[in-house]
UniProtKB/TrEMBL annotation:
HAMAP family: RsxD_RnfD (MF_00462). The modification FMN phosphoryl threonine is found at T179. It comes from Spongiibacter thalassae. InterPro entries: NqrB/RnfD (IPR004338), RnfD_bac (IPR011303). Belongs to the NqrB/RnfD family. It is found in: Cell inner membrane. This is Ion-translocating oxidoreductase complex subunit D. Its EC number is 7.-.-.-. NCBIfam families: PRK00816.1, rnfD.
């Protein structure tokens, strides 16, 4: 058995793993409500399918590894992976797409490395990247938000379920649109003000619907901070570095502009990534100083890939790249052992 090499003092509290997972699930609700209001019931259908597949694949992996099912299934870690991937997918995604993603996340990214606590990469983001590279058409098939189309055209629960099963895909293909990040990336002729005026996908500061979804995940993240599920270092440093680099390269709104800092903060998966992905305790840096560096580089990578890379939203790619670097960061940001002086002070004395 491998033990974590942690220096004293060791604090023990009532925050067990199942309790942490349940708090994370609860914190996703404001963002889920926003996505459901603006894009219909497709996100809820994604969560339904993803949860069923996650529990099934988790039970299969535990059975093959001869682990007790009730004990490990009750920790809710599989459900957290299901929720995170389901939220990241386009609403009412094909059921086979969800099955492939969840199977890869649970069986390959989690249990192949030894289960929860041993996976080097965030399972939900690794599965998202696999699906995006393998099935780009299905992964970019986002419905137009409420306000850009009539309310009657948004899928209800039955319509969303049928669409996920492939029975109503044609009906909703007519109301799919490029996301605001897609539009900004493809724009090379219009000033941002003109692009905003001509495209119904844009709201006041960022994408219509995406603004409120990001606010919802921000509220959920602040709740987790209040409950001390994680520290502020990684999410705040990610958002701060993204703001700074977006401000440095913002030229006021020309056709070559990458967008304002507020646009990047309220677009795509920014807040979702900052508070629900970057804060993963298993795949991120361990020390507070390391988390600051870890989050800051992720923010820079998000803007870099969004502006000059091949993909409009880059949270998943940025997180996976820094998952690679997390052990390196830990090596150079180890906190001093409790009761000992820093190395340079010991050498002077």
């Amino acid at each position: 058995m491998a033990f974590l090499k942690l220096s004293s003092p060791h604090a023990h509290g009532p925050m067990s793993t199942p309790r942490v997972m349940r708090l994370v699930l609860l914190a996703t609700l404001p963002g889920i409500v926003s996505l459901t209001w603006f894009f219909g019931f497709g996100t809820l259908v994604n969560i339904l399918w993803a949860s069923l597949f996650a529990l099934a694949f988790e039970a299969l992996a535990l059975k093959l590894r001869r682990r007790p099912l009730a004990f490990y299934l009750s920790d809710c870690s599989a459900l957290v992976t299901a929720f995170l991937l389901a939220i990241a997918l386009p609403p009412a995604a094909p059921v086979w797409l969800i099955a492939v993603g969840i199977g890869f996340a649970i069986l390959i990214c989690k249990h192949m490395y030894g289960g929860m606590g041993y996976n080097p990469f965030n399972p939900a983001m690794a599965a998202y990247v696999l699906l995006l590279i393998s099935f780009p058409v299905d992964m970019t098939n986002w419905l137009a938000p409420r306000g850009a189309i009539s309310v009657a055209e948004l899928p209800g629960p039955i319509d969303a379920l049928l669409r996920s099963l492939g029975a109503a895909s044609t009906q909703f293909d007519a109301v799919t649109m490029a996301t605001p990040l897609d539009l900004l990336k493809q724009n090379d002729a219009l000033l941002l003000d003109d692009l905003w005026a001509q495209s119904p996908q844009f709201g006041q500061f960022a994408g219509l619907g995406w603004e409120w979804a990001n606010v919802g995940f921000l509220l959920g993240g602040l709740y987790l901070l209040y409950r001390r599920v994680f520290t502020w270092h990684a999410p705040v440093s990610m958002l701060a570095s993204l703001t700074v680099i977006a401000a440095l390269f913002y030229d006021g709104g020309s056709s070559a502009s990458g967008g304002s800092p507020l646009f990047h903060l309220l677009s795509g998966a920014t807040m979702f990534g900052a508070f629900f992905i970057v804060t993963d305790p298993v795949t991120s840096a361990v020390s507070n100083r390391g988390r600051v560096f870890y989050g800051a580089v992720i923010g820079i990578l998000v803007y870099t890939i969004r502006s000059w890379g091949n993909y409009p939203d880059a949270v998943a790619f940025a997180v996976l790249l820094m998952n690679f670097a997390a052990p390196f960061i830990d090596h150079y940001t180890q906190p001093r052992t409790y009761g000992h002086k820093p190395r340079q002070n010991r050498e002077k004395s």
